[in-house]
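Morning. Coffee machine broken again, so started the prediction first thing and wrote up yesterday's gels while waiting. Chain of 192 residues, entered below exactly as on the submission form.
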Amino acid sequence: MDTPIIAQYYRETEPEKRKELLEQAIASGEDQEANKIRKEIWEARYKGTTNEGGIADGYLKFWMALEFNRNAGHKVFGSGRAQKEIRKELDDVKFREIRAKSALHEELLHRECQHLVRFYMDLCEKDKNYNSVLCGLITIKKDSAKAKLQRDIYETAILLPQEIGLEEDLDLLTKAAREMYELQFPGEILPE
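Came back before lunch.
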């Protein structure tokens, strides 16, 4: 059961605000072991800077690498290149290193994957270009936007890992994608 501060931490999308909430939780002395791990994950996720000087989200960069490689399984040598690029992004955010430390590390990494998928879904829902056709001039219907989001999540987090042989490396993300999709769209299940 999350404390109110940690619950807010997992709802927040701004890196600076997430850090402030985490520092509040650490200062309060609550759940010290888990908060120490959350800090380790936060530092691995938000270690770079954007061109505008903000904090870069390494997990979002990792997700975009998955998106970019969605069709890699259908190309000659595509799987090998995709595996290499995706593992590089995983290592850049210390995903596999952190996961291997303990069951609690893995559980909190799963929570961070849930946060990533929820954040991605929110970005897609709010992005006018994502939900439009003809260079952003015509907005697609809500059902079409939902189908597009469902297809994107399925192809990126479920199908791609299977096609390029990274099911084990990406199983936390796949599980998180299913959970967040079903939470967003109750009663709807992504295909296997």
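The mean pLDDT is 88. Going to sketch it on the whiteboard this afternoon.
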